[in-house]
Amino acid sequence: MKNIVFVGFMGSGKTTLSKVLYKELVKENPDIRLIDTDAYIEEKLSRKISDIFAKEGEAFFRVIETETLKEIADMEGTVIVSCGGGIVERKENLSILKSIGTVVFANTPIDILWERVGNDPLRPLSKDKDAFFLLYNKRLGLYTEVADVIIDTGNDSVEKCVETVRRSL
Ligand code: S3P
Questions:
Q1: Which residue has its alpha carbon closest to ligand 1 atom 16?
Q2: Cα–Cα 20 to 30 A to 3, which of 63, 76, 97, 150?
Q3: What is the pTM of this model?
Q4: How far is the CA of 125 from the centre of ligand 1 (A)?
């Protein structure tokens, strides 16, 4: 089975979807693994993402994020990967994402994203509404460019989104 990689803005439902998909696919593929890049980084560094942003800053986090993506690309076996929203910030990540497997862009309208995660203390880049909207507009083209499949996680149910992903595999 081909690997599946979820990309999309903060709050677009990548984590939820990847978990539901994993639960379905693991029945047929018992060796499949579910990886969340943020959780992977937090475990690797024994630190919270918010703490890394506060102490070392975003640039440092992006370096670790690319390292993480390379490690995932080198893994044996099938993986479902849920990526942090800023994974498309570095150009080199785009080709790594593609090399990992089918890239799914979880797309949600910006107003809904802000309602879901605006001012979330655990998300360092969701503190300011204008900056949040600008960031979304900057990244939208990148998510679209890297995606093999685009799902509407703003309007469609989790079940429908999972079904769309499964049909695209
Ligand atoms: C970020 C999104 C976060 C996390 C970090 C930076 C971003 O992940 O990687 O706070 O730049 O959009 P989620 O998309 O899971 O919130």
A1: 10
A2: 63
A3: 0.97
A4: 7
Hey, CA dihedral for 77, 15, 48, 126, is it positive or negative?
Answer: positive
Closest CA to 108 of 135, 79, 140, 78: 140
Averaged pLDDT score across all residues of the chain: 97
Residue 30 makes CB contacts below 8 A (sequence gap 6+) with: none
Residue 109 Cβ inside 6 Å of ligand 1? The answer reads no
Question: Beta partners for 148?
Answer: none
What distance in angstroms lies between residue 86's CA and the mean position of ligand 1's atoms? 6
- The residue nearest atom 8 of ligand 1, judged by CA position, is 84
Q: What percent of the chain has pLDDT over 90?
A: 99
Check which CATH number belongs to the domain holding 152 and give it: 3.40.50.300
Q: Give the residue numbers spanning the domain of 18.
A: 4-168
Report angle CA 128, 132, 136 to the nearest 5 degrees: 175
